[in-house]
N-formylglutamate amidohydrolase
Amino acid sequence: MRKLAVDDMISLIENGESFEAVADDYSFTLKIDKYVPYVCGAVHDGHQFRKSLWENCLHSEYDRWYEEDPCTKEMVAGYPIIIAGCDSRFEYDLNRGPENAIYEDAWGKQLWKKPLSDKEKQESLNKHSNFYRLVHALIGKLEKDFGQVIVYDMHSYNWKRWEREVPVWNLGTANIDNERFGEAVEDWSRSLGAMKLPNGIVSTSKINDTFQGNGYFLKYITSNFKNTLVLATEIAKVYCDEYDYVIYPEVVRAVKNELAVRIEEHALKFYKRLSK
């Protein structure tokens, strides 16, 4: 994997070149093995936390991990185009707009011992801005090449905090064109619900049950690219013990193997249907 400036990544995309790189500030990675009409994104996969923020942070390393989306990049690792965050959402949240991307508190708990300086905030916001410059270039290139694009926006959520039964998979569709893309949404939900998972996990799937798809990544792409569908796809953290801080590798591998078939099948069906 190369280290590249964002401008250099954008130039490679515009020229249609395949590459795998980390941004020169190590804030995100992008892999393009070949140009296809679908993308996998894992904006909350990152766990890095800038050292200059450590002493000022009231949340522990575990507190941050608990609210992040570990393994979401790994679950889609085999796909041709993957964009993923490296930094923790506690530094800046890629799934929020720039005006709200830096938390003052997080899940009801004050985050900083003292307010961040403007310099600290700007360093994080520059990373946020560069990420979306890259997203804009990537989706623009794919829409130009293919006409129709689909983005699998991968997330996870803490299911044990809910006081009712919740699905293993949730699709959030409140901010997409459901009249136009409703069939693709239903197809994706059915496919997720048909997964075979280990440890007695029954792969249930619902739409707008626990989350509605209000993230900035989805909203940004949807508002700027009318022929791109973003599917906010949340897996309950059945692949780990969210309280004991333990990952279950056999479940992660099973999800990865299932998605290795299901994403491509769904994406190609979507592309063929809308390209007719």
Remarks:
- The chain has one domain: 2-275.
- The CA atoms of residues 178 and 185 lie 8 Å apart.
- The helical segments are 6-14, 61-67, 72-75, 118-146, 178-193, 216-224, 249-275.
